[in-house]
Every structure is written in structure tokens, then in C-alpha cells.
Amino acid sequence: MNNEKMGKETYPPHDEELAPFPSYPGIVEDSKEAEHDAVFGAITEDGPNYRNVGWLGTVALMMKTQIGLGVLSIPTVFHTLGLVPGIICLIIIAIITTWSDYIVGVFKLRHRDVYGIDDAGQLIFGRAGREILGGAFVLYWIFVAGSAMLGISIGLNSVSTHGACTAAFVAVAAIAGIALGSIQTLGRITWLAWVGVTCILTSIFILTIAVGVQDRPAAAPQEGVWKSDWKAFNSPTLPEAFAALSSLVFAYAGTPAFFSIVSEMHDPRLYTRSLACCQTVVTVVYITIGTVVYIYCGSYVASPALGSAGVLMKKICYGLALPGLLVTETLVIHVPAKYIFIRVLRGSKHLTANSMIHWASWLGCTVAIGLVAYVIASAIPVFGGLVSLVGALLGTLMSFQPMGFMWLYDNWKNERTTRWYLMVTWAVFVIVSGTFLMIGGTYGSIVGIIDSYTADGGSSAWSCADNSNSVAAG
Asked: What region holds the Amino acid transporter transmembrane domain (predicted)?
């Protein structure tokens, strides 16, 4: 159905939302015979079924791409901006990214042959759009994988009381992530996603309770009367403010992975249901955790936040969180590896057949992504700085601007109604705000990383030093 002729936005019919089998082109139905998908081609019982993720599994995958690394930096963001501006900025970014996430699902239903953000880029901007967005997509997830490895090394240092060289812990994290990331389909990873979400949520809620009942945070002066110095409003420098906003973007920047997730859903028309569940839970968790931890810890909140409640609670919290951090790493290695794998073998029988070429290509992709991420994690071993840099430079580019252009691409020739003008204004706002955050946030993040290298006790590349004791600047 051509939405240009209809003169309005078109979406999947509401009354077909719960139909037992999809009826749109390119959908795989339940059958023992070979079926055809617009992206994966023929899917048979002889190879991996890339279209086997249910809507609940989609919720788990969505939540795990977001709740993990990002939530651990939110209390520090609130310290930088002040509690009130921090919450307001978080809600604004949640609204924008939720709309962007929604557009991903709508765009996929309208363009069945779209697998990744690069396919959308080619439709809108041609070959240049495909290559630029595709390259940014891979680079973004490699950086996120590096952040995950760094987070795991912090956890291992905490649990073991710096029982080994940090560089060795990063290497262990890389090996484990490559192994688990090599699982062929997202459908087989959904159970890991549920485990990961459960572990990370349990960990951060225990942290929240711990900071509420303890006398003072671990990094605060341990003698005399102590009172939290949290602030409703703060006065950060411009680089600090941009870096904080970039960390919030990173906390919601699972958006580019949603292309891959919706492409592997059995019924992508249920995508919006999964998205609503995911974003509601994520936003409530972020606000709750960030507010409580910051109010009780003030300027002595640790980054990552799991180190805020003392040595014993840090061990407990990280012990619980490590499986969740490992699942995050699994997903963020799997997603870019799958993108490269599909781009190389798309249209070939080896894409869905368990052949030697299939396995050599797939394992080559996961190992390559993991190794590059390992180098990044070892070269920039500053958790807060790396998170904000990734959020600024690539998170906004993957979660803001393309979705504004995607809406304009599908609806520019529609009838000029009041709603159309409002939506055009919104789409342009998303594009402009994303560009502003990307430029300013990258600057702020780079300044922060440089400062951390020059400060006393700063980390260095491939360092053996303990990286589990950082705190927010007072």
C-alpha cells in the first residue's frame, strides 16, 4: 500500500496485530518447509532459524542492550548536572529515543528488506549513506563492547580485591565475550538476556538498599558527622555538562541494535508492544536508581555506581552484576558481527546453511569484533570517559538523526495537515538536537579523558592498576 496515495501515515492494521501468523511479504510462517525472508533468504531446518524471537524475548533483548553499562553512570550524571536538571534531561532523552525506537519498527514493517541502519541509509541517502551509517554502526558497537569489557574488568577487580593485573581481566572478558557472542541467533541468546537483566537489576537494587541503610558512602570521610552533599541544581562546566548528557544518551542508545532485533522477530508487528514494556521499565529503573543512590552518596558516588556502598557490598553487587555485564558484552559483540556476516553472505546459500564457509565467516566476524574491542578497552581504560565518548560520538548518530530522516523519507509527500507540520518540526528537532549533542558531547568527553590521564592516580593504557575505585569529582 502506497502511503503517498493515502495522504497520511500508514501502519500495520490494528486488528491484525495478534494474528497467529504474519501475512506481510517476507515473513516466515510456522512450517517445516523452506520459507523465504526478505533479509535472510531461504530458511530451512538444515540451518539456523534467524526468525525465532518472540515478543517477550524481544523485551529481554531490548532491556539488556540498555540496562547494563549505562545505568551505572546515571548517579554520577545527576551529581554533575544536579538532581532536578538530571531527571529532566533523562526524561527528555527517554522521550526522543523511545520515538526513535518506534520509528525503527515502523520503518522495518514498511521496508521488509531492511536489516540494519545501513539499509535505511541507502534508501534515504544512497550508497554514501549506507557506507557512513554502516561504518558508524560497527564502530559504535565495538566501542560499546570495549566499555563492557572494561566494566567486567572493574567487576573482577572488585570481587577479587585486585587479584590480578587489570589488563589480564580485560583479556579474560574479551575471550568470554567472543565465545558467547558466537552463538548464531538472537533467539538462542534470549534466555541469556533474561538472566543478564535479572542479575543486573538485582545488583543495582541491592546497591540502592545498601546506600540507604549505611551511615555514609565508602569514599566519604569515615570520621565525624557526615551529611550527604547532594544538590538539586549544580553548575557544571560546559564540557562536564555535555559529557553528562552523552552518558544519558548512552544509557538509552540500544536503538541501533533494535534493527537487528526486529529483523529476527517471528512476528515484527508485536515490536511496539515489546518496546513499550522495555522503555517503561528502563526509565523507571534509571530514575529510581539514579535518584536514590545520588541522594545518599552525594559527591562521593562512585563511577561505576556499584562501588558506592563499601568494600563488602561492592563485592556482593559486582558478583551479582558480572553475569549481566557479560551478557551485555555478548550482545554487543554479536550484533556488529551479525551485521558484517549478513552483509558479506547476503544472497548466498551459506547465510542460512551450516557449511564450512558459513562457520568460518561467522567465527571470523565475532573474533575480529572482539579483538578490536579489546584493544579499545585496553587503550582507554577510563569507564566514565569511555561511556560518555561513545554516547556522544556515536550513540547520538545512531539514535537521533537517522530516525528523523527515516520519518521524513516515508512521510514527506503526505498531505500537508497540521499533524504533518508538527511531525516535520519534531523530526527536524530530533535531527538538530542529535547533531548538537554529538558535537558538544564529543568535545566534553575528550576533555574529560585528557584530564583523567593528567590527574594523579589516573589510569594508563594496558595498565595493571586497580580500576575499581573511581569516584565522582567532588
From this structure: 52-446
Does 197 map to a domain? yes
Residues 187/193/198/204 CA torsion (nearest 10 deg): -160
- The DSSP result for 422-442, as a single string, is HHHHHHHHHHHHHHHHHHHHH
**What pLDDT digit, counting tens, does each position of 152-171 carry?**
988 898 888 877 888 899 99
Quickly list DSSP for 156-221: HHHHHTS-S-HHHHHHHHHHHHHHHHT-S-GGGTHHHHHHHHHHHHHHHHHHHHHHHHSSS-TTS-
Nearest Cα neighbor of 69 from 471, 387, 468 is 387
Tell whether 396 is covered by a domain: yes
Per mean pLDDT, which range of 85-89, 155-159, 258-262 is the poorest? Answer: 155-159
Task: Name, in order, each residue with C-beta under 8 angstroms of 236's C-beta and a sequence gap of 6 or more.
Answer: 80, 81, 244
Residues in the chain: 474
Number of C-beta neighbours around residue 474 at 10 A:
11
Q: Which residues lie closer than 8 Å to 318 by C-beta, 6 or more apart?
A: 154, 155, 158, 159, 203, 306, 307, 468
Residues of the chain above pLDDT 90, percent: 49
Instruction: Spell out the residues 6+ positions from residue 213 whose beta carbon is closer than 8 angstroms to its own.
Output: none
What's residue 393's pLDDT? Answer: 82
* CATH code of 172's domain: 1.20.1740.10
Domain count, the chain: 1
Whether residue 12 has pLDDT greater than 70: no
CA distances to 61, 208, 468 from 261, rounded to whole Å, are 7, 31, 33
Cell of 33: 518447509
Spatial CB neighbours of 309, under 8 Å, sequence gap ≥ 6: 207, 210, 211, 214, 217, 218, 317
Count of other CB atoms within 10 angstroms of residue 8: 12
User: Which range of residues forms the domain containing residue 137?
Assistant: 49-220+229-454
- Residue 27 pLDDT > 50: no
Within a domain: 298:
yes
> Which pLDDT value is given to residue 376?
84
H or E element that contains 22:
none
Nearest to 406 by CA among 102, 198, 140: 102
21 pLDDT above the threshold of 70 = no
The three cell numbers of residue 230 are 547532594
Q: With contact defined as beta carbons under 8 Å apart, do 404 and 428 qualify?
A: yes
305 occurs within a structural domain: yes
Amino acid at 469: N
Nearest residue to 333 via CA among 260, 249, 243, 426: 260
Give SS3 for 41.
Answer: strand
